[in-house]
Every structure is written in structure tokens, then in C-alpha cells.
Amino acid sequence: MSELDAEAQELLRLGSATLYEASRSDCFLAPAFRPAWDGAQLVGRAYPVSAQIGDNLALHHGIEAAADGDVLVVDGGGGEFGYWGEVMTVAAQARGIRGLVIDGGVRDTAQLAALGFPAFSTSISIRGTIKQWPGAVGATITLRGRVVRRGDVIVADRDGIAVIPAERYDEVLEASRDRAAKEDAYMARLRAGETTLDVYDFRRLGAPRRDTTP
């Protein structure tokens, strides 16, 4: 994927929720991952990084190793440290890295927003890090129970983060297009006055007991 190509734009329009629902699998990251600044959103290929808690040396190696169009997806052990900030963002953007997803903290959020660099983290923290353990780059990681492999497609927005396995990408994209088209048809019926009970055929599931007390 090249920067902001048509397919990436389509994925952002479809959104993380539609992609997840259309996948019919648990391809989402935990809700603890939130955008570091309002409006952040990203699409790219996962480049996994494993870091020691409170040590961001592995992230510097990740910046060097990742390719244009990649998203750094980092297991920082959930540590509430400022693993990432403005300096690393400038270095990452120069190499075409599209964004960051980290189980850990980031800082310099105003600068990240001004630079337009999307970062999703489990905390915001100014607490400093050490640089002692080089970690691992490119190898499969597990973030709060979700496996992330190199090349998986990451779609992140304010609703959440979908991690689409590379081998299922075409299938999930097509299913998401179908789901979006069906939802457009549902919206038209709802705007015409139909209820969600009828549009989604929920009446077959039974009626509630009604209180007839005056």
C-alpha cells in the first residue's frame, strides 16, 4: 500500500467496526488501546516489535527495520512510560512509517498531532525510559491476547483497532464492502420510518412483557 492510496482510504471509510464485524472473528485489539490525539486514524502493514517494560531501545531498532507503509505494533508490556515522542516520530515519518500501536505509553501528543502521526497507546505518560535491551523486531507478538504477525493489516480509528490477518485480507475486505452496502439499505428503510425490529427481523425473537398498569 502506498501512502493514502485508494484502498487505504476505503478501509478508513469502512472503519474498524465494520471490518471486525465482517471478519466474523475476534480480530480486534483490547479497548485499552486509544488514539493519542483526537482524529488519529491509520492503515498499514503490521511490523511487530517486542520491548522490555520501561525500555524503548527496541523501538529505535524497529524504526530502522520497518519499511515504507508499515505500522509499528509494539508490545511494551503495558508499561506506563513515554516510549515514544516527537523525536522518534520525525525519524519514523522520514522512513515512511504510517503510525504506531503500542501496549505502553507515548508522550508529546500535541506534537504528534501537529505532525499528523497517528499513535494508539494504552496510556499517555511523560515517565522516561532506559535503553538497555534491544528487544526483537519482525517476530510475531501477542497484545493482550491478540496475535499480531508481520504483514497483518492494521486499521485503527476512534472506535478501535482491527488486525486483519494477511491471508484473510481480500476475503474480509469483500465481506466488509457487502456489509456496508447492506447497512446503507437498512438506513434508507429506517429513514423511511421502519423500526429496527422489522429491518433486522427481531420480532421473531419474541415480544417483551408489557406493563399494562394504568
Automatic annotation (TrEMBL):
Leader peptide range in chain numbering: none
InterPro entries: RraA/RraA-like, RraA/RraA-like_sf
Gene3D superfamilies: Ribonuclease E inhibitor RraA/RraA-like
Catalytic reactions on record: 4-hydroxy-4-methyl-2-oxoglutarate = 2 pyruvate; oxaloacetate + H(+) = pyruvate + CO2
Domain of life: Bacteria
Pfam families in the cross-refs: RraA-like
UniProt cofactor(s): a divalent metal cation
Family: Belongs to the class II aldolase/RraA-like family.
Function field: Catalyzes the aldol cleavage of 4-hydroxy-4-methyl-2-oxoglutarate (HMG) into 2 molecules of pyruvate. Also contains a secondary oxaloacetate (OAA) decarboxylase activity due to the common pyruvate enolate transition state formed following C-C bond cleavage in the retro-aldol and decarboxylation reactions.
Cited PANTHER family: 4-HYDROXY-4-METHYL-2-OXOGLUTARATE ALDOLASE 3-RELATED
Assembly and binders: Homotrimer.
Name of protein: Putative 4-hydroxy-4-methyl-2-oxoglutarate aldolase
